[in-house]
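Before the break, one more example. Copy the sequence into your notebook; we will annotate it together after we see the structure.
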Amino acid sequence: MVSGVGIERSLGVGGLREPSVGDRVPTVPSRDSRWAADYALRLTLTDSCAVLVAVAVAYVVRFNLDDGVPEVSGAFSPSYLVVSLVLMVAWLVALSGGRTRDRRVIGIGPEEYSRVFAVTWRLFATVAVVAFLLRMEIGRGYLAIAAPFGLGMLLLGRYVSRQWLHRQRDRGQCQMGILVIGHRGTAATLIRQLHANPRAGHVVIGVCVPSGEVDAGETLLGVPVLGAMDRAAEVAEQIGAVAVAVTGADAITADIVRRLGWDLEGKGIDLTLTLALTDVAGPRVLMRPVNGLPLMYVDEPHFSGPKYAVKTVFDICGAVFATLILSPLLIAIAIGVKTTSRGPIFYTQERVGRAGRSFKMIKFRSMIDGSDVQTSALSGRDQGNGVLFKIRRDPRVTPIGRLLRRWSLDELPQLVNVLNGSMAFVGPRPPLQQEVDRYAPHVQRRLLVKPGMTGLWQVSGRSDLSWEDSVRLDLAYVENWTGFGDLIIIARTARVVLSGRGAY
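Here is what the structure looks like once it is written out:
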């Protein structure tokens, strides 16, 4: 956790008071917004380099420089040098206008990457339309190189910068201080949620409660209660908060929120309203004002349709490509398994797939032959999460099996399951029948989609997760699936597999 120091001055019911012993909050250089400005400049520089390299590579690869400066064919025919300069400027302006460097989306979650992706494809769609209207025949090869290569460079630059930001936040730097207002119960819940992942950069540095409930010197989960809600704007400005988070409370009326918004105007402090609605992703949320009242619609999740057809095509094509590329590795592992221990190369196990249909999941055998019959004898050594049976140093695992499990190589044969349609690349963890028999009714929703070779459970801790967290992540994926989210999970899987974290 980040370090803590006492605040110099804090507001109570009667105004300024000296801090008590319990008034200890994290060191948050948030009001000093230089870190946000410096980080935005860092992103601007990496974005500029990515765009410059992408356009330059497309220009050099597509055209012969010995023939002079090429020109676009058509009724309007500027040189490709001019087109390249305009494209670079437009790309950078679009990244800025698309708010891809907004401090509220950087550092955590897929939104930053999603915005970069959306800005890029919209830009090149616009280029195609403009070229058509002006009768410019811009080379398709030129655009076909610049667009994907530039997008890849942009995303790589954002990823590298995010890792740097995570390291800073691990040290307690580059944090965003939050003032929470609401009743103690809801405020405590929000504090726990915001502090659950320090790399998100949200640190609660003060709490304001309804009038009449303020107790001088009180702290809530280590965060000082600094005053009444009607003085929240004053408190936020004094302690250096970058945002005021309003939690649900009967005492917080629409008039109070509206006045708080007015009080925060011009102070550079955000106002955020929190809802008791978790694990609902942005694509399912639609905000619409009705007679001055903002209504939030939450679309029901869908488990079929065109986007799932696209997912199926992606899974099949990806599995074919991965199998071809990894075939030498697959052959080498098969030889290693066969020659180092007795038994078959592959281990198949009955798992439950979409709609409760059973299928045979294929893995490289990583345990001694006949290990299943020893499970009951080892039940006393179970280190799982209460539902899944796991042992960190399972005596049944073979030497080569430990290596395979550490790097998740034993799961590569599941590409066959993806090809036959029983699994997907990304999805919930494929459960055993005895697990499904113990599911609560709401957990059955995991079976609405195909299980995956990887998923949120894989990139969030694997075997180290509690059963509740595993279920929550799987349900969140089932109800909020997006194609871009799958790509993010696959990219994160590679990093997790290389680290070996949570694998045993």
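Confidence is low (pLDDT under 50) at residues 1-32. DSSP finds 14 helices and 18 strands in the chain. Try to locate both features in your own notes.
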